Amino acid sequence: MRKYRYNILIGIVLLMAIFQAPLIYYYTSGLTSLFFIPYILIGAALTFGLTFVLMKKKLITGIQKAGLISTIVIGSLSLFFRHILIEKIDWNLRKSTRNKIVALVKTNQLQPNSSYNKNICKLKRWNIPPISNGGNEIVIYKTEDGKFTIRFYIDRGFLDHYSAFTYTDNPADIKIFKEKTKTYKKIDTNWYRESF
Question: Where are the domains of the chain?
Answer without folding.
Answer: 2-86, 90-195
